[in-house]
From TrEMBL, chains A, B:
GO terms for cellular component: mitochondrion. It comes from Rhizoclosmatium globosum. It holds the Pfam family Lactamase_B. Its cofactor is Fe(2+). Keywords: Acetylation, Dioxygenase, Iron, Metal-binding, Mitochondrion, Oxidoreductase, Transit peptide. Belongs to the metallo-beta-lactamase superfamily. Glyoxalase II family. GO terms for biological process: glutathione metabolic process; hydrogen sulfide metabolic process. The lineage of its organism: Eukaryota, Fungi, Fungi incertae sedis, Chytridiomycota, Chytridiomycota incertae sedis. It catalyses: S-sulfanylglutathione + O2 + H2O = sulfite + glutathione + 2 H(+). The keyword Endoplasmic reticulum does not apply. Residues 20-186 form the Metallo-beta-lactamase domain. GO terms for molecular function: metal ion binding; sulfur dioxygenase activity. It is an enzyme of class 1 (oxidoreductase). The keyword Chaperone does not apply. This is persulfide dioxygenase.
């Protein structure tokens, strides 16, 4: 991590290597039962639940940045371990969840806040979460597949739109202060974090014009994700499959 | 990361997935040419050098926590990209390097300090690096293979000694404040950081007595690392092979 961490903040980045997914644990030691887990993966729920318990925390929310096509969300399995936990996802994701999140809504994590920022384009229902401290200073943003480190999510299925993604990143993420840390849902090259300032300058796709971005995205020719036919139907139903 | 990061600190954790090795970049924005890279891997030198240049930094030291048996150090390749960089390793590692580090020696990273703490046991020449801020507050410790997250390095080759490792961890690492972040050289389960307080309580090996620890370590029956016959001879010579 690269942001100034207030002393009561608990922050952990966790990695699931099959789908190269990052899961993030965020909590406030002064309100230990309000921990939030962003993008849990079904296969690492045991690991994550053990860690949460070892840290003396209780889970308030299991958040998904979007309806994933490459892995099954862990929110359903987590509910069995943390009965008061609620799953949450954007109201535009087309998925079932205990809480459907609206743009600009805030989620309290003890004294900290996660501000929901709709960032559609990879899917219609992609949402980023901006972590702010007690004084409302932005610290870090969890960008899902909207903004990856020196990359971005694909826009060729699941309602993907390069124009929409470009607009989302430029208006809702690149408008943040340069020193805000960036924590994506995936990385495939061993990076673990970046900053808004760095991505504005060095992101090889999103630092370009909207037209150039569209050309790049239209010519990626990526294979279909291995798990899409299993993962999307399951994730629409909170990971139940 | 989970420690309070001073505003001028640059900190990046990088991952090499073949050997599950973490590389750490540490710098002070106010002294950009004094960046340090801990445990670089040969196969990710291009990635790391590009990042260092994008961040406007210059490399002062390439540090190795020990003579690795599972990957080839990147220090030799990095010297070609950063001609003023010096490689460094413990004087007890039995390896060539530009600087041979002594126990308790300090390395300045701009206004920050890395304090060398000899932590033998996995190998004779294992050294941990304690990052301190301008006020000498300990922030994080880079533990190499001495202390892993809920684990530790093996002690069955390369001068390994369970008794020595137990003593190192308990006297030189567990003596640090509980809130100091722990950043190891490897993780195989998707964890990225821990804290001293957590490992003292939850490390399944090192939270035990010295006798129980030795019994655990004597019965691991691990296979020989795939790369040991290539990596150790190369790493003794700063990664030249
Ligand atoms: Fe996705
Ligand atoms: Fe090692």
């Amino acid at each position: 991590m690269t942001f100034p961490t207030p002393s009561s903040l608990v922050f952990r980045q966790l990695f699931e290597s099959e789908s190269s997914t990052f899961t993030y644990l965020i909590a406030d030691r002064t309100h230990p039962n309000e921990a939030v887990l962003i993008d849990p993966v079904d296969s690492t729920v045991e690991r994550d639940a053990k860690l949460i318990k070892e840290l003396g925390l209780g889970l308030k929310f299991g958040l998904n940045t979007h309806c994933h096509a490459d892995h099954i969300t862990g929110t359903n399995l987590l509910r069995a371990k943390f009965p008061s936990m609620k799953s949450a996802i954007s109201e535009n994701a087309g998925s079932k969840a205990d809480v459907l999140l609206k743009d600009n809504q805030t989620i309290e994590v003890g004294q900290f806040v996660l501000e929901c920022r709709a960032t559609p384009g990879h899917t219609d229902g992609c949402m980023s979460f901006l972590l702010k401290d007690q004084q409302q200073n932005p610290l870090a943003v969890f960008t899902g597949d909207a903004l990856l480190i020196r990359g971005c999510g694909r826009t060729d299925f699941q309602q993907g739109s390069a124009a929409s993604l470009y607009n989302s990143v430029h208006t809702r993420l690149f408008s943040l202060p340069d020193n805000v840390s960036v924590y994506p849902a995936h990385d495939y090259r061993g990076f673990t974090s970046s900053t808004i300032g760095e991505e504005k300058v060095h992101n090889p796709r999103l630092s370009k014009s909207a037209d150039e971005f569209k050309t790049i995205m239209d010519n990626l020719n990526l294979p279909k994700p291995k798990l899409i036919d299993v993962a999307v139907p399951a994730n629409i139903n909170c990971g139940v499959h």
